[in-house]
Structures are given as structure tokens and as C-alpha cells.
Amino acid sequence: MNRLFSVNNTFTSYQNLISFYNSHKDKEFDEIRLELDVFFAANMSAALGAILDKFSENLNDVIFDYIHSQIEQILLKNDFLTYYGRERIEDTNRTTIKYQRLKPTDGKYFKRYVIEELIDGHSYDLPPMSSGVKEKIVEAIYEIFVNAQFHSNTEDIYTCGQFFPNKNKIEFTIVDTGVGFKQKILERFGKHLAADRAIEWAVQDKNTTKQVTGGLGLAVLREFINMNKGRMQIISRDGFYQYDNDGVMTKMFNGEFPGTIVNLQFCTDDSNNYSLTGEIDENDIF
């Protein structure tokens, strides 16, 4: 029996998911049973869905033996459990950003999904921002998808999000099951870097290029997150990178995630008014 409990957007929770994956990654024609208990941050559905699909590729049966009632409610609202034969329930509070398993060819759909699910149409309000800033953020997030599409060699891309009203936070997650930052930087630049250093190298402004997974999108998002006092996390294979108000933190996992996770946290209680230079003459801060 496998029990995932108190899964949040923390290094420890990512490590627990990685340990779960590594415990079963070599199984074939088997049953993999799982319990979700205490708490499960709904945006982490993207990472869990990628792991469970890897198990299914090896012709294993994934069985949920127990899901805590509150977790079950949110995973029915965000459509995650509909992929496992359950019927969704309406999200009357409008806090979920739907779980989606997409093909790399679904780029246009993903862009519309970001606009409709993350930027507009929910119970929360993002900080006040001009149409130019909104477009810039949408393009930056879309570029993460595009780089997963063209450079990671992934077969599927997973995405999901959640608004936490009590914390004034939005968590939005994009996952692929591709080769990861370290391998791509080695192939394109000949640099032998540990996974955590490879992520850190890729998000620097001077290295932002479409030849690096994430490219300019990660730099733009990091700039916005810095002003918004949010957070960016990137997990790629056995590397962990986090950027927030405390600066940069990197670590290494015990075992590897089968691809890359990009998790973005935005603060909704941000009173800044964001606009691009040239859109408004006064109070430009982006």
C-alpha cells in the first residue's frame, strides 16, 4: 500500500512523489494501489497524473484504495478523477483550474486554456494589470508549453491549478515527461551540469534562448514573480530550483522525477498595478 499524505508545494512533497514513482517505475502487469490522505494540493494533480500514466504505460492497474473526502471533492471538481472513471462535480466556488492531459500538438488549446482558466473567469482576481502585461504573461506561460512540445521529447503535457482563498495564492503547474534540463543543455551546449545547476543556468537572462527548455518565458515569469512576491519552482529529473523573495534555493532529490515540473505561485493580494513601459506614462512597474 502506498500512502501520499499532506502533499503540498514543498520540496518534501515533491520528494515523496518521486519516491512513490521510483518504487514502482520498473513494475509491469501489476497493481499499484494508492491512498491520498490528510491534504492534497489540487495543482499537484498534474505531477501525480504524469506519474500514474507512466505506470499505466507499463500495463499496470492503478487503484485508489482510499481518498480523504475533502481531497476527493476537490479532485472531482478539477476533473482529475474523471480520468479514472469518476463523474465530475460542479465547482461552485470556482477555485479550481481544470486538470488537463494534453498532446504536444494542442498548443492553441493550451493558450486558450491559460486565458480562460488562469487569467479570466474565476472567483479570484489577479493583481491589476494592463492588457499588454496579461498578454506577456500568457505568452511566457505558453512558451513553457512550446518548449516542452518541441524540445523535451514528451508524449503528453499535464497542467492544473488551484486558488487558495485563505492564503491569497494561485498555484499553476505544467508537467512534461521529457528528457529534462540537464540532458537538453548537454545536447545543445555541451555543458555537463548537475540537474539543479542546469535549471539555474537555464533561467538566467543571459542564457534565455529557445534552445533551452523554458527559454524567455521563465525569465519573464521570474521578473513578474519577483514583483508579485510569488514563487517559481522547477523540478527536472533529480534537480530542484525555487525562486521567491528569499532568493534562489537549489537542492537535489533522492531519485528522479520522470520529466519536468514548472510550478508558478501568484499572489492575489498584490496591490501593484502592472503595465508595460509605454502603455502608461506614470506608475509603470513592469
Q: Per DSSP, what share of the residues sits in E-state strands of 2 or more residues?
A: 25-35%
Averaged pLDDT, please? 89
Shape: globular
Q: What's the number of extended β-strand segments?
A: 10
The structural class is alpha+beta
Q: Give the radius of gyration.
A: 18 Å
Q: pLDDT under 50 segments (min length 5)?
A: 208-214
Biggest sheet: strands, sense, closure? 7 strands, antiparallel
Order of helices and strands: EHEHEHEHHEEHHHEEEE
Helix content: 25-40%
Short characterization:
The protein is of the alpha+beta class. The chain is 35% helix and 25% strand. The strands form 2 sheets. It has a 7-stranded antiparallel beta sheet with strand order 4-5-6-10-7-8-9, sandwiched between helices. Strands 1-2-3 form a 3-stranded parallel beta sheet.
Can you put this structure into words, describing what you see?
It is a single chain. 41% of the residues are buried. The strands form two sheets. Strands 4-5-6-10-7-8-9 form a seven-stranded antiparallel sheet, with helices on both faces. A three-stranded parallel sheet has the order 1-2-3. It has 286 residues and is α+β, with helices and mostly antiparallel strands. The protein is globular. The chain is built from eight helices and ten strands. Strand 2 (31-40), helix 2 and strand 3 form a beta-alpha-beta unit. Helix 4 crosses helix 5 and helix 5 (131-151) packs across helix 8. The model is unreliable at 208-214 (pLDDT under 50).
Per-chain topology:
Layout (H helix, E strand, L loop, with lengths): L1 E6 L3 H14 L6 E10 L4 H13 L3 E7 L1 H9 L18 E7 L4 H13 L11 H21 L5 E8 L4 E8 L4 H9 L5 H8 L12 H14 L2 E6 L2 E6 L2 E6 L7 E8 L19
Parallel strand pairs: 1-2, 2-3
Antiparallel strand pairs: 4-5, 5-6, 6-10, 7-8, 7-10, 8-9
Helix pairs in contact: 4-5, 5-8
